[in-house]
Specification:
It comes from Armatimonas rosea. Keywords: ATP-binding, Cytoplasm, DNA synthesis, Kinase, Metal-binding, Nucleotide-binding, Transferase, Zinc. With 188 residues, the chain is an alpha/beta fold. The chain has one domain: P-loop containing nucleotide triphosphate hydrolases (Rossmann fold, 3-Layer(aba) Sandwich), CATH 3.40.50. The chain contains 4 helices and 13 strands. The strands form 4 sheets. The chain has a 6-stranded parallel β-sheet, sandwiched between helices. α3 links the parallel β6 and β7. Bound molecules: adenosine-5'-diphosphate (ADP), ligand LXEULUCI and zinc ion.
């Protein structure tokens, strides 16, 4: 059995996670490896059949409703499994990724490590803990131009309150990349 692995690409919004995931997928395809790319059906920004970076890079993908459905969709011959927006999956995504890596698959996961409050997001912190490789990317802070590790949610131009729902699908209409100093989340 080949040695499996788990690589996690994390960071704020606009930090280049999707670009990096697509780069690794294309590299695997050049190496003639069999690849499947998944995303959560919850992410409705693009058609269910693609993942797309903020600067327009595209790759085909399969949208799945749950971690269980992702696992059941994997063909036995698949060698590389890429999973986009992992923070949106149910908590079983952790055991699914671990099982796949233990079965000899190369698993590449990308997702937000923090939500708009700066709190750990979904299964991402656990995945980071057990990953063989972690790539943490940074965007450019929309306020000061420094390195941004956080995602600011704005409502009518003001920082969204901590009580806002964790999930709000969107891009520049709702979010900015911000550094620790410029990031704000008002108390309720
Ligand atoms: N504040 C920003 N900092 C860096 N890149 C940005 C920013 N805003 C927009 N971009 C664009 O977003 C691209 C990264 O998009 P993407 O890979 O989809 O990021 P992520 O998946 O982390 O949200 C960059 O190459 C750049 O063209
Ligand atoms: C911070 C934050 C983000 N989201 C949503 C917004 C986008 O639909 C995705 C992140 O996409 P990206 O590829 O990383 O740019 O997540 C959210 O629902 N809740 C949040 O707190
Ligand atoms: Zn800043």
């Amino acid at each position: 059995m080949p040695a499996g692995s788990l690589t996690v690409i994390c960071g704020s919004m606009f930090s280049g996670k999707t670009e990096e995931l697509i780069r690794l997928v294309r590299r695997a395809l050049y190496a003639r490896r069999t690849v499947q790319v998944f995303k959560p059906a919850l992410d409705t920004r693009d058609p269910a059949t693609v993942i797309r970076s903020h600067n327009g890079a595209l790759h085909e993908a399969l949208a799945v409703e749950s971690s269980a459905s992702l696992y059941l969709s994997i063909a036995p011959e698949t060698q590389v499994i890429a999973i986009e927006e992992a923070q949106f999956f149910d908590e079983d995504i952790f055991s699914v990724c671990q099982a796949l890596a233990d079965e000899g698959k190369e698993v590449i996961v990308s997702g937000l490590d923090m939500d708009f409050r700066g709190a750990p997001f979904g299964a991402m912190p656990s995945l980071i803990a057990v990953a063989d490789n972690v790539v943490k990317l940074r965007a450019i802070c929309a306020v000061c131009g420094g390195d941004a590790a956080r995602s600011q949610r704005l409502l009518d131009g003001q920082p969204a309150p901590a009580s806002a729902p964790t999930v709000l699908i969107g891009a520049t209409e709702h979010y900015e990349a911000r550094c620790r100093q410029c990031h704000r989340v008002p108390e309720d």
